[in-house]
Amino acid sequence: MPDPFSILMNRFLAWFNNQVAYVPDDVQESMDTATEAAAAAPPATGLLVNTGSMCLCNKGIAPMPLAAGVPTVMASGTPSFNKLNATPLEAVPSFTMCTSTSNPEVAAATSAAMGVLTPMPCVPVIPTMQWSGTSTVVNIAGQPAVTDKSSITCQWGGTIKIITTANMTVKLN
Length: 173
What we know:
The protein has helices spanning 4-16, 25-40, 104-112; strands at 45-47, 54-57, 64-65, 74-75, 78-79, 97-98, 120-121, 139-140, 143-144, 151-153, 159-164, 169-171. By secondary structure, the chain is α+β, with helices and mostly antiparallel strands.
């Protein structure tokens, strides 16, 4: 750590050479704290998710489109998603094959193949039946809107995230 005299001298030289203005330590600390908080804060806007938006499970094989099973508010000509549109195989699709060894079918097939990972058909199991990371401002049919920042967790350890949506930008918080 530099000594206080070096710090003071560097600040004086910077001020003298018109490079920066002098900022008191307590003000600089407040500015640093605010900068860190802004960097850690969630984004203020996102894209509204609707039928046809593509999603992918990190334990699945292929990205698949979402389909809102229950008619809700239309956005860009298709039904948009809210927090409760999370019915497996209806709203949340199968990602063709599952690679999670937490899935009993994958574990059994992998065991039978002498430990070689053997993917099995994907059947998502969503225990919470709700999307997380939804909008705190925009509601669809009385529930928070799902945005491109939202995700949902499968019981077999997969995280399903939105990867593409061609929709309007909405305010998140």
